[in-house]
Amino acid sequence: MWDTIIDVIAGTFMILGCMMSLAAGIGMLRFPDLLSRLHAATKPQVLGLLLLLSALALELRSWSVVPVLILAWLLQLLTAPISAHMVGRAGYRTRHLKRETLVTDELAAVVAAAGEREDHENVTKPSTDRTDFID
Amino acid sequence: MHIVLWICGVMLSIAGALAIIRLAKGPSILERVIATDVLLLIVSAALCIEMTVNRHIDNLIFVLLAAIVGFVGSVTVSRFVTDRRNA
Amino acid sequence: MSQDQRLNDAKDEQGTPQHATLRQELPLLVGMMLVWGALWQDFAPGNLVFGLLISLLLVRVFRLPPVILSGRFNILRAIGFIGIFLWDVVRASFEVMYLAIFRGPRTTSAVVAVELRTESDLLVTFVGHVLTLVPGSYIVEVDRRTSTLYLHVLNVNSTQDAEKARAAVLKIEERLIRIMGTKEELAALATEKSSVSKEEG
């Protein structure tokens, strides 16, 4: 009786976890620009892994694996935002974004001001501000 | 359990295929990096499911490794991209 | 921010680099010890002591600038926060899934600047981390001098939506201050609340 209930819960978690991976795949393909695609890549995966690891713990029916599973999930929690931030920052700076999908951009003015200041400081330096180098 | 396994397998295969399409299409290196990240996470999801079905945790280290490889890879590449621009 | 910058910031007025004291490192040491136990799947006292020794050695060999903690930690609020956080993660994940499937290429977003109240690096990092994990937003850029976060927010269709996102960020910051902010930050929060309620009333 209890075995069946636990199995059903674990199965549901597994399907939901896979759905999160699928959502990431669909989002990767369908979102308009790099910065929105990052959302699809990072967010559903955190929940997806949590669900799959919980399903694993449920099926093993043992408490001793729980700490190491939590550790695996915490590692994901720590690293996912950092890589999202690094890729997002690089993407914004190299202008891999579609302006028309942004409703407001409160960073643009700040970046423009900083760029101007830099230009005044080294006037003789030729501009290396190319953005199309890596496509 | 058998049906669940099939559903999960199909969903993960589709997700993997979509990630590979994005990996091929690009258009920029950053997109390829996040597509690789997604692909790695799909692989670790598959490893988790295998562990759940066969009731062991031998693959957990590979799940952790996939997370670390994805992290180091995307951070390195995005550093490289910004550095090229500022150089 | 490069590592040199962090090490420079950790110097005192005379320019001698500051190292973390044992007391400041205690949370880190305990955390490392628990990780050791989890990896061995064995929380027996002997194993934990050995883990503690290894973490002490690691902390001594690879010195880091101190992480300044506020000295307060409200565990009840922390547990509540974890609950809210998990719920937010679930909601946000389904939201992103919905957007990916039904909205797709027509999804609009925004880059929003949010100036935080706190000046502590640790809290700014925490807010940034939680934000990146939770509802459709992640950090594009951080201005450390003014503690301003520049967020990329998904599914923003109007300036009202952007304002809503800003309010949500400040709410998360408020919760984190209540968990682990300094007394000064708590007091600032209280005065802010009372002035708001006076304006309303």
From TrEMBL, chain A:
Locate the transmembrane regions by residue number. Answer: 6-29, 64-88
Task: Tell me the protein family, please.
Answer: Belongs to the CPA3 antiporters (TC 2.A.63) subunit G family.
Superkingdom of the source species: Bacteria
Q: Which UniProt keywords apply?
A: Membrane, Transmembrane, Transmembrane helix
Q: What is this protein called?
A: Monovalent cation/H(+) antiporter subunit G
From TrEMBL, chain C:
Question: Its domain of life?
Answer: Bacteria
Sorted UniProt keywords: Cell membrane, Membrane, Transmembrane, Transmembrane helix
Tell me where the transmembrane regions lie.
43-62, 74-102
Q: Does the keyword Cell membrane apply?
A: yes
Major place of localization?
membrane
Q: Which family does it belong to?
A: Belongs to the CPA3 antiporters (TC 2.A.63) subunit E family.
Supply the NCBIfam families for this chain: PRK08965.1-5
Q: What is this protein called?
A: Na+/H+ antiporter subunit E
